[in-house]
Automatic annotation (TrEMBL):
<dbReference type="InterPro" id="IPR000700">
    <property type="entry name" value="PAS-assoc_C"/>
</dbReference>
<feature type="modified residue" description="4-aspartylphosphate">
    <location>
        <position position="870"/>
    </location>
</feature>
<dbReference type="InterPro" id="IPR013655">
    <property type="entry name" value="PAS_fold_3"/>
</dbReference>
<keyword id="KW-0808">Transferase</keyword>
<dbReference type="Pfam" id="PF08447">
    <property type="entry name" value="PAS_3"/>
</dbReference>
<keyword id="KW-0418">Kinase</keyword>
<dbReference type="Pfam" id="PF00072">
    <property type="entry name" value="Response_reg"/>
</dbReference>
<dbReference type="InterPro" id="IPR004358">
    <property type="entry name" value="Sig_transdc_His_kin-like_C"/>
</dbReference>
<dbReference type="InterPro" id="IPR036890">
    <property type="entry name" value="HATPase_C_sf"/>
</dbReference>
<protein>
    <recommendedName>
        <fullName>histidine kinase</fullName>
        <ecNumber>2.7.13.3</ecNumber>
    </recommendedName>
</protein>
<feature type="domain" description="Response regulatory">
    <location>
        <begin position="820"/>
        <end position="935"/>
    </location>
</feature>
<feature type="domain" description="PAC">
    <location>
        <begin position="374"/>
        <end position="428"/>
    </location>
</feature>
<dbReference type="Pfam" id="PF02518">
    <property type="entry name" value="HATPase_c"/>
</dbReference>
<dbReference type="InterPro" id="IPR013767">
    <property type="entry name" value="PAS_fold"/>
</dbReference>
<dbReference type="InterPro" id="IPR003661">
    <property type="entry name" value="HisK_dim/P_dom"/>
</dbReference>
<keyword id="KW-0597">Phosphoprotein</keyword>
<dbReference type="InterPro" id="IPR000014">
    <property type="entry name" value="PAS"/>
</dbReference>
Amino acid sequence: MSAFEQAGEWPACGGECAGLIRKLGPDSTPLGAPDGWPRALRSIVDVLLRSSAEMAVYWGPDYIALYNDTHARTIGNKHPGNLGRPAVEYSKELWDELKPGFDQVFHRGACASGRDRHFTLDRRGALEPSYFDYAWSPVFDDDGRIGGVLCITTETTERVRATQALSASEKKARERGEQLQMAQEAGGIGVFSLDIESDTLRVSSELCRIFGMPVHEEYPYDAFGRLCMGQDDPIATRAMRVEGSVPLEAEYPIRRANDGAPRWIHRRCQFVRDGAGKPVLMRGVVQDITDRKQAEATLRQSEARFRVLARAMSNQVWTATADGRLDWASESMSAYSGLSLEDLLGDGWSRIVHPDDLPRAWSWRQALATRTAYENEARLRRHDGTWRWHLSRVQPADESDGLDPSVRWVGINTDIDDQKSAQHRLAQSVAERTRDRDRLWQLSADIMLMADARGRIVAVNPAWQALLGWREAQLLGRPFLRLLHPGDVATAVAELRRLRAGRTNSRLEHSHMENRVRHLDGSYRIVSWTAVPDAQLLHAVGRDVTALRESEARLRQSQKMEAIGQLTGGIAHDFNNLLQGITGPIELMRRRMALGRTEGMERYMDAAAQSARRAASLIQRLLAFSRRQTLDPRPMNVNELIESMDELLRRTLGEQVRLSITPDAATGAAFGDAAQLESAILNLAINARDAMPYGGELRIGTSAVLLDEAQAQRLDLAPGRYCTISVADSGAGMTPEVLAKAFDPFFTTKPIGQGTGLGLSMVYGFAQQSHGLVQIQSQPGVGTTVTLYLPRAPAGERAPRASIACVPGDAALPQGQGEVVLVVEDDPAVRLLVLDVLNEMGYRTLRAEDGTGAIPILQSAARIDLLVSDVGLPGINGRQLAEIARGLRPGLPVVFMTGYAEHVRTRAEFLAPGMQMIAKPFTVEDFASLVQQAMRDRPVE
């Protein structure tokens, strides 16, 4: 334990910056005293203070700077004034460059990195160009939000300067070569053209002479390609990667066909392309440059001799006999070592070689037998006693150099100590950069992985254990897809296939996807991935966005509650009006009956009944919007249904609106509720009429469409065949703001009293509940088109038998034969009504308030000919009670009454044979007719 830890001080480590942070007071920094800093900030400061890498963290929206001693040395005279202060205060000359990058990390959670980035930095009282490798990543606060920016940097100024100097040197060398080429170009020139489609090459006689081929006007292209010396045609290998008519040039050796002589040629050509950009013709020239190449070789040899003489003036030159003993040395060698020439001759030169390098220095003698050039690096002692690295180049002597043939070796010692130091610093820089990259891998809060071509994990960073609980040993070799939620696997597989396919392209493919990754405890976290492939591996970085998605879900819930509030207000407004139309006439009738007055009672009864029917219609529309209405889906011929509505639509639209119906014969049959489809089309027609107050045209059309997987995914539908019904008007159209709310319940642009705003909501709910879709396209002043998608019925499927017979009866109710009906209804008023109706029909009745009370009656020996039950009973629901009744009394007919039940979506799925259903509110006549039908259809004992 350190002394700081024993004293309870923080930071509990040594170093200048740690000491300065301990001294920070409440007013020293906008962050306040260190003991009040967030836990996350204190943790990252602990990490960077103990690191030898250049690290800093910039905390909060003002980017308060905290850093370690290594970073302090990099920023020069800005330290220590900037410690704990906003970055803009000490980095004014850099802030325009730094702030956009910091904002990307802090506000968007992006990571950023770069190599050798140029900055103009004032750290010694004057601006100076500097270069850095950097990596910026977000740091999260105690609440899981981004609290700051972590910066890991490495200064690369010396390396960049060395690279720039090398590039300048190479450029000068290239310029000298180009000037030499221009000065010495000469020789014959051959012309050729290649028809790419036929692979036919037309050549001049001069070109045939250059290649040593018989003179012909045409050749197959590969006849010349075979003459390239052991390589592919260098022009052809690049041809298809070049766009347009950019000229291509190459110099390469050939072997002449007639005598096998090696020659050098220079070839220049360009492509002619057709209108689609496809190359159709290659034309160009060929020149024999063998003489120029030989001249260049001679020049290089001459330059080499010149360099030997030039180095002899400044370097240490010596000669040695065949046995490796020096017999001559230059004055520069004597001046460098401080020894006389006599002391250096023979084996005396070994006195200036570092003892550790002496074995290597003697090893040059191994080249004596083969008379090959030799190079060696060793440290030589200077006259002042310091050791410096030298490169010794030794080669056999040549009479043409004017040297005595008895002298076998010539050597030059070149001082390379500065280069060795630069190489050492570069190696340290590379090693440091590697350590920084590894450190980022270790410290990143994002999970990172590498996977092979089969999707098996080959490397993960420690963040996996922190975020998901998995240790590295548990993940290596494991298929990545097995960690995903089963519902996300298909999407991930498709994206990985796309990445693998794109890996062969010239541009780098990358992917952004989001899926659920399993925690070690079995739970799932939502992770947003960025993935990039290379030739062998897939590299991916994942960020935990679970909290973000949960926040978005809470926002959606808040918006949903706001919508529910709007919906509730709309329902209250309309229902209060309807209830007034019911309660008012009932109160007036009660008053008149108390006074013995019965005249005009029918008027009040009609008004109350009309308001009740309007209330039932409003409920039906609400259920349609919420996709909770009870549907009776069956195959229906869409074209026949619309044609049957022709007269109704024309009466509804009026004379000012022209109606045009254009059915497509291929539309076929849709699967849905015919009555609801009629209501939807009528609602759309009424909306279109109201949008054309001065008249216009209404067009209704049908068609059949086949949605593949991609199209269906865009529409959020299942792939397959659909029937479409489109209703288009030439009216006023909708603004984008109105269009965004078109399906909202109780939203309407009509004046008060001219619409509830539930028409389009009902159409939307009906389409969704029917596994279809409704779309709106509208432009102000142009008109509106509403398209309804419904699943197409399978070929040959027949409509199921109707389950309800809602036939209006006469004033007198149909009579029974004293049969016994068990009534189960939890609402007292409805139960009283049903019992009275059944008694008036001549039936005997048994009653129960719920399923629990009905079971003993069903278990008894009492006669029961029919069960009439509400669906939404407390405890055991009506459908469950019917199953129990059928188990006790097989074949017992059942009539269900329902106001609304969550699981009653389609009659065909809900009802078994011998079961009927009627929706509340119902008329007495409809109920009596349904009971009579159930009694008539019951099995005979």
